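Reader question, answered in our methods column.
A reader sent in the components of a multi-part assembly and asked whether the whole thing could be modeled at once rather than chain by chain. We filled in our standard form and ran it. Here is what they sent:
COMPLEX SIZE: two components
ENTRIES:
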Amino acid sequence: MKKPVKILIAVLIALVLGTAIGVGSVILSYNSAVATQNIKNGSWQTNLGTGTEKANPYLRAATAVHYLLALNQSETIYYSANTDDSGNLLNANNDYRMEGKAPDARWWSITVYGADDFLIPNALNRYSYNANNVSLDSNGKFSIYVSKQQQAGAWLPLGDQKRFVLALRLYNPGQSVRTNPATIELPHIIKVMKK
Amino acid sequence: MWTALGTLVVAVVVHIATLVAIPLVIMNAAMAKFPVNELSMGPKTTAENRLVVRPCPDLVYSVASYDVSKGPVLFTAQVPVDTYWSVSLYNQDTDNFFVINDRQIKSNPYNLLLVKQGMKYENPANAQVVVTPGDRGLLLVRHLLVSDDKMNELIEIQKQASVKMINAQAQASTSSN
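And here is the structure of the entire assembly that came back:
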């Protein structure tokens, strides 16, 4: 084989293989790269750089894919959970109970999303509970069930999903959240035995 | 060996280019879904709303794709009292570079004037002025829907808001500065 042909083949291999590795490595790495930078609090994670000019390229990519149009942390802090209190991935074939106190924020909500980051279709059009509509017991605690099967009390339906993710939004978070995002009390996510 | 080295160089360049491109491509796709310099009023958020990932079902949104390249853009809104409301601005790489809520505004109705760096403009509405980092981006209004029976009230508030370009002629005379 003549030398120019060998060079051309080598260049083509470098371009094709390099492009595949370059794109593939981003797809495989951006979520995990961001996860290592996240603040963890039990099952919940947050990143105070979301939506800010300080965000690095990996966080910007993750924001675009999962949190497009998120507010910066001066206005809202977003926590997200894809595991339960035991550290196991949330599985829509299981039943879960969220228990907690109202977080320190002007207004807050907990929303369930499908694996595609969109709201889960359901007959009740119920996707969230928030500071205005959740019931608190005499200890100031709420309890919300997350499952496919209807539950008595507060219930977030999982439709026909396999995986799901929970999002906790804290609008105008209080000083305790800003100071201690890793240690403030956030809702527990407990897997419960099916009835 | 040269092939391996070349592959590595291409991989690094493509890796960086892909990272930079992802927010730009996704944001531009989102911007293309909304009218330019015109406020689009969203309905109550449900599972059928799939314009943007992770919508908050407790909020009702109004959105505009802004473009200040040909002139300043004025946002005007009647802000609800004692209910969460905010207007936020995003540039083309997803950064939320400005946000103000109902408790922070200095006047009601609230006026916000978007201008580009170095642009000459008039401000007859005495609007709060924000210099945008680029020519284009998204303006997003969040209205908290406290309960479903407040939806009609909220729609009336939405209708009173607007986004429009102003002083296009003045900008044309300053573009060569």
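What stands out: The radius of gyration of chain B is 19 Å. Strands of chain B lie at 40-44, 59-67, 73-77, 85-91, 96-101, 110-116, 128-132, 136-144, 162-165.
Send us your own complexes using the same form.
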